[in-house]
């Protein structure tokens, strides 16, 4: 009987070790997916880890969350870097990406998402989707959107547009994240 108990203990130990290995690989796969969600293709650039220290430092400087941009779940928009961060409640960067600015900038400050529209024609005449509006300045409504054709606008001299244009994948992420009432922090 003692011999059978010891064989059972060995099998139980091996089973526990196998489950631990499977759990570890599952955790690694999940972490890799979370890292992939944190940035769009323009941040990753397909470098595959081959970037040098200077390139990595430059990318980190560009993508680091601005100081004094608040806490909690929010959208952070840096006017100087033309970059957005989607921040989770736990200060985790859910996604960061570059945008094409509107010709009328919002003033630095804290706002809330006021309205949304799945499809409209932008103030520049381009059909857009995933419109998330949060501010008004100089009589112009300001919000994030992405063009159906994937274009990013060129600034028109003298034009007053409020559309902060995103790539389509980034616009989809914004749409899913920034519901009515979501905080938007604009910094310089």
UniProtKB/TrEMBL annotation:
It comes from the Bacteria. Residues 34-66, 101-124 are annotated as: Disordered. CDD domains: YkuD_like (cd16913). InterPro entries: LD_TPept_cat_dom (IPR005490). Signal peptide: none annotated. Residues 34-45, 52-63 have a biased composition (Basic and acidic residues). This is L,D-transpeptidase. It comes from Streptomyces marispadix.
């Amino acid at each position: 009987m003692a011999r059978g108990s010891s064989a059972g203990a060995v099998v139980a130990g091996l089973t526990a070790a196998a489950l631990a290995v499977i759990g570890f690989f599952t955790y690694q796969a999940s972490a890799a997916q979370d890292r992939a969600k944190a940035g769009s293709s323009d941040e990753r650039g397909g470098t595959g880890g081959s970037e040098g220290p200077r390139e990595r430092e430059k990318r980190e400087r560009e993508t680091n969350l601005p100081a004094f941009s608040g806490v909690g779940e929010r959208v952070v928009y840096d006017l100087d870097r033309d970059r957005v961060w989607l921040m989770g409640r736990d200060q985790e960067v859910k996604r960061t990406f570059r945008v094409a600015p509107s010709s009328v900038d919002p003033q630095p400050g804290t706002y809330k998402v006021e309205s949304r529209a799945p499809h409209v024609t932008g103030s520049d005449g381009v059909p857009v989707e995933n419109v998330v509006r949060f501010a008004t300045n100089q009589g112009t409504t300001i919000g994030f959107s992405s063009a159906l054709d994937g274009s990013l606008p060129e600034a028109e001299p003298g034009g007053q547009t409020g559309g902060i244009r995103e790539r389509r994948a980034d616009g989809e992420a914004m749409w899913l994240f920034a519901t009515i009432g979501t905080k938007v922090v604009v910094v310089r």
